[in-house]
Design a protein that fits this description.
The complex is a heterodimer of chains A (337) and B (262). Chain A is built from 13 helices and twelve strands. Chain A has 337 residues and is of the alpha/beta class. Chain A has two domains: 164 residues, Thiamin diphosphate (ThDP)-binding fold, Pyr/PP domains (Rossmann fold); 128 residues, Rossmann fold. In chain A, the strands form two sheets. Chain A has a seven-stranded mixed sheet, with helices on both faces. In chain A, helix 4 packs parallel to helix 6 and helix 9 packs across helix 13. The longest helix of chain A has 16 residues. Chain B folds into two domains: 118 residues, 2-Layer Sandwich (Nonspecific Lipid-transfer Protein, Chain A); 131 residues, SCP2 sterol-binding domain (Nonspecific Lipid-transfer Protein, Chain A), CATH 3.30.1050. In chain B, strands 3-2-1-4-5 form a five-stranded mixed sheet. Chain B has a five-stranded mixed sheet with strand order 8-7-6-9-10. In chain B, helix 1 crosses helix 4. Classes of the chains: A alpha/beta (337), B alpha+beta (262).
């Protein structure tokens, strides 16, 4: 496993390597060996790439039209009948429009419905704020029984889709629009739901991130090492719930500076999940949450919005530099022993 | 003749980095511990320099010793060298004798001299065979060098201070394995110009660089420069975990200090 160092993706990659495409192809592949898998869409089969499954298994695919509540309610019923429904739509429609059905029909009964939510965060920037989704992590992690995963790229999406079959209850997998550059070079790493992946070693500060922020954080860590001599650990916290408490507490113990990065409102998302772990441990550290600062996001191309909100490598570098000047303990006794 | 800046820095390193290691001897050497039990006295050691006195004083209090830079009020014994260079020569194990006031307290003088001479265990020429002495030598040397690094920064060496100034809060940890048996560990903490040497394991965060000596014998070989540091790593005497660049830079400063003090 290794992270690439630059934005090396091409138009070819966008149709073959991105999270959305890989999700669709992986699901179609899984469908060959598991006939309990069924696909559900709310008139966004192409957009969410579940069309690959629909083409391969037309009898096991159901399009509900623009009716997400109906789709999630039906998904619960299909799951009760012994099937494993993969329901795909845009993140904003899943978490808010279909929120009640996901909570009451699916999570309350702890049913194995797998929700694959695309266009999360601000990845569909130019479609407008109505299509942005910076609330889904907060909503989904508050539902009991729900597992919440935000893969870093297409490779990790493939692993998450496969892994979610082994999770008994509902799973929410959050991916982007489909133009995200790859973070991993290959699949040679262990993806275990609930276990963070160390992408870059470090002892000065730890960045805990998920989704598109992982690649940007790795690039930032490499730049900070070269230019500032700073040793920054990057943890890919792909599973937001259940969160890897052990990795968080080890990072606190080892580095005493924690920066969370998420393409999400800083209220209720990864930052708050990490913050809760730290607060409950009683350990002191410098802690900052970086993401969308409790505002409705602007409209624009995703790359411009990432730069505006400091979610690109440059923004992350600035945050790290600022945090290095902050105190994490009152121990200012400099007398030699 | 006035001492050079280099000589004054060396004296300061002896006072503030080497002399405090006497406490290790008092704690770990049973004979020395017995010798200083119940001793309460003050001893001044210094050298003339351009009409002034470059000095420190040792305060003994029932097996404990505190080292303070500067002259003392009414010390029991005063040792004064004619020059700073001669004082440094004696501390390095060479021939130079001070003028002594308080010679009437001969018993105390002999004890203090024997304690001063015990510091020679840190010199490269000293190659003990006894395992306990070996461990003591390694412990004293590591305690002394981490303290010397901090003192070198605080004394304002431009290169050292610049190195410390541009670092965030970081720990350079030294440990001799197996720690449960050797109980030898010390560290240097640096942060934006500040520095502190400490004993034991720093437990509030992971070391930025860990110098992990695999045994007392391995540590001896590296500290005595029987092998170069890189060779010591290759032969498995020491493992460095963390930034290799900063480990090398610290090692360079350690070499500078060793050449000044030995």
């Amino acid at each position: 496993m290794a992270a690439v160092t630059g934005t090396t993706w091409t138009c070819y990659d966008s149709s073959t390597m991105t999270s959305r495409e890989i999700y669709g192809r992986t699901l179609a592949e899984l469908g060959k060996t598991n006939d309990r898998i069924v696909g559900l869409s709310a008139d966004l089969a192409k957009t969410t790439a579940i069309v690959h499954f629909a083409d391969a298994f037309p009898d096991r695919f159901f399009n509900f039209g623009i009716a997400e509540q109906n789709m999630f309610g039906a998904a619960a019923g299909l799951a009760k009948a012994g099937l494993i429904p993969f329901a795909s739509t845009m993140a904003i429609f899943a978490c808010l429009r279909g929120g009640e059905q996901i909570r009451t029909d699916i999570c309350y009964q702890n049913l194995p419905v797998k929700i694959i939510a695309t266009h999360a965060g601000i990845s569909f920037g130019h479609a407008g704020t109505t299509h942005h989704c910076t609330e889904d992590l907060a909503v989904m992690r508050s539902f009991a029984n729900m597992t919440v995963i935000a893969p870093a790229d297409g490779i990790e999406t493939s692993k998450a889709v496969r892994a979610c079959l082994d999770i008994e209850g509902p799973v929410y997998i959050r991916i982007g629009r489909g133009f995200e550059p790859p973070c991993y070079e290959n699949e040679n790493y262990d993806f275990i739901p609930g276990k963070a992946v160390e992408m870059h070693a470090g002892t000065d500060l730890t960045i805990i991130c998920c989704g598109i922020a992982v690649l940007q954080s790795v690039q930032a860590a490499k730049t900070l090492l070269e230019q500032d001599g700073l040793s920054v650990r990057v943890l890919n916290m792909h599973t937001i719930k259940p969160i890897d408490k052990e990795a968080v507490l080890k990072a606190v113990q080892d580095t005493r500076r924690i920066l969370t990065i998420e393409e999400h409102n800083v209220v209720g998302g990864l930052g708050d999940a990490v913050g809760s772990v730290i607060a409950e441990s009683g350990k002191g550290c410098v802690f900052r949450k970086h993401g969308i600062q409790d505002e409705f996001s602007l409209i624009g191309y995703a790359e411009d919005l990432y730069a505006h909100y400091g979610l690109d490598a440059n923004g992350i570098i600035s945050h790290v530099r600022r945090m290095m000047g902050m105190e994490f303990e009152a121990d200012e006794n400099w007398e030699d022993d | 003749m006035a001492a050079t800046q280099q000589e004054l820095m060396t004296a300061r390193l002896f006072f503030n980095a080497a002399f405090p290691v006497m406490q290790v001897v008092l704690d770990d050497d049973p004979k020395m511990h017995k010798k200083f039990k119940g001793v309460r006295a003050m001893v001044q050691i210094g050298a003339k320099n351009d009409g002034e006195l470059v000095a420190c004083h040792l305060i003994f209090n029932d097996g404990k010793v505190a080292v303070k830079e500067g002259t003392a009020e009414n010390p029991d014994i005063i040792m004064t060298f004619s020059t700073v260079a001669k004082m440094n020569t004696m501390f390095r194990g060479g021939m130079a004798l001070p003028a002594i006031k308080g010679i009437a307290k001969l018993g105390l003088l002999i004890k203090v001299f024997s304690l001063l001479m015990s510091l020679m265990l840190m010199m490269p020429v000293s190659r003990p065979k006894d395992p306990a002495k070996k461990a003591l030598k390694v412990k004293m040397s590591l305690y002394m060098i981490t303290r010397a690094l901090s003192v070198y920064n605080k004394a304002g060496d431009p290169a050292m201070h610049d190195w410390v100034l541009r670092q965030p809060d970081r720990i350079y940890q030294f440990i001799v394995e197996p720690y449960e048996e050797t109980n030898i560990a010390c560290y240097l903490r640096v942060k934006a110009g500040n520095s502190k040497s400490g004993h034991g394991l720093y437990e509030r965060r992971k070391p930025f660089v860990l110098f992990d000596f695999k045994s007392v014998d391995g540590a001896m070989k590296v500290l005595l420069k029987d092998v170069e540091f890189v060779e010591g790593v290759e032969k498995g005497y020491v493992e460095t975990i963390g930034s290799p660049e900063y480990a090398c830079q610290l090692n360079d400063f350690m070499s500078i200090l060793q050449s000044m003090l030995t």
